[in-house]
Inverse folding.
C-alpha cells in the first residue's frame, strides 16, 4: 500500500468550495479523489489541474444512493489503497418562496445535503476505522442554520442537521478507532448564490463583522486545520466573518 495520504472530496468537480478544498489538500501532498455527480467535463478539468501537485482521479456517484456510495468507496480504494481524509462539500441550494416549496424540493435537498453526507460518513468512516492510522472527516454545513434567511426553506433543514450528524459520527467512529475524527465547517458568505440581487449581496456583507465576502479558500483553510490538528473532534466551526454572533441591530 502507498504511504501517500489520500483525500476524497465530494462535490469537487466544479469550481466551487469543493475544488478549492481539493487543491489545498493536493498542495499538502494528498492524492485526491475528485467526486462529481453530473459535471464530468468540469471534473476532468479539475483533475488535470490537481495533477500539477499530486495524483488525482475523478469518480462519479449519486451520493443519495447507498449502492453508488459503496461503489465510490471501493473505486477510490482500488485506485489509491486508502482514504485518510474525507471532505463533504457536495451540496445543492435552490431558492424558492415558501408558498412554492414542494415535497420534491425538500427531498432533493435532504438527499443531497443530509443523506449523502450520512452515507459517505458511514462508509468512508468505517473504512477509516479499519485503518490503524484512522482518518479525518470534515463536513460542510452552513452558518445560517442558527439564523436562517427567507426563501430557502427546503435548504436550511438539510444543512441544520449537519452539526448533529457530525457529533454522532465523531462518537460512533471515534469509539471504534480513536484515530478517527469528525468535524464540521459552517461557512458564511464565502460564495454567495448568483441569484442574489446587488442589495442582497451588500446586505450579506454588511451582516459580517469583517465587512467583506469570504472565499472558498477560507473554507479550505479551516478544513486543513481540522485535518492537521489531531486533538479536535466533534467540533463545528463557523467560517462566516462573524455573522453568527453579530446582528445589525446590535
Amino acid at each position: 500500500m502507498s504511504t501517500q495520504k489520500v483525500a476524497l472530496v465530494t462535490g469537487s468537480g466544479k469550481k466551487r468550495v469543493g475544488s478549492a478544498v481539493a487543491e489545498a489538500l493536493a498542495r499538502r501532498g494528498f492524492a485526491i479523489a475528485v467526486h462529481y455527480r453530473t459535471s464530468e467535463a468540469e471534473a476532468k478539468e479539475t483533475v488535470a489541474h490537481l495533477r500539477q501537485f499530486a495524483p488525482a482521479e475523478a469518480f462519479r456517484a449519486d451520493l443519495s444512493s447507498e449502492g453508488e456510495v459503496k461503489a465510490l468507496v471501493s473505486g477510490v480504494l482500488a485506485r489509491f489503497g486508502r482514504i485518510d481524509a474525507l471532505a463533504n462539500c457536495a451540496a445543492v441550494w435552490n431558492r424558492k418562496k415558501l408558498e412554492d416549496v414542494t415535497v420534491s424540493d425538500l427531498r432533493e435537498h435532504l438527499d443531497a445535503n443530509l443523506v449523502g453526507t450520512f452515507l459517505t460518513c458511514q462508509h468512508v468512516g468505517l473504512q477509516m476505522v479499519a485503518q490503524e492510522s484512522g482518518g479525518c472527516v470534515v463536513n460542510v454545513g452552513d452558518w445560517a442554520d442558527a439564523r436562517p434567511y427567507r426563501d430557502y426553506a427546503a435548504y436550511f433543514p438539510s444543512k441544520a442537521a449537519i452539526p448533529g450528524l457530525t457529533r454522532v459520527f465523531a462518537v460512533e467512529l471515534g469509539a471504534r478507532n480513536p484515530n478517527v475524527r469528525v468535524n464540521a465547517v459552517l461557512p458564511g458568505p464565502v460564495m454567495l448564490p448568483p441569484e442574489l440581487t446587488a442589495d442582497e449581496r451588500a446586505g450579506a456583507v454588511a451582516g459580517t463583522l469583517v465587512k467583506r465576502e469570504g472565499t472558498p479558500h477560507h473554507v479550505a483553510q479551516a478544513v486543513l486545520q481540522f485535518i492537521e490538528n489531531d486533538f479536535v473532534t466533534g467540533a463545528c466551526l463557523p467560517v462566516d466573518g462573524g455573522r453568527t454572533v453579530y446582528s445589525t441591530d446590535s
In short: The longest helix spans residues 103-130.
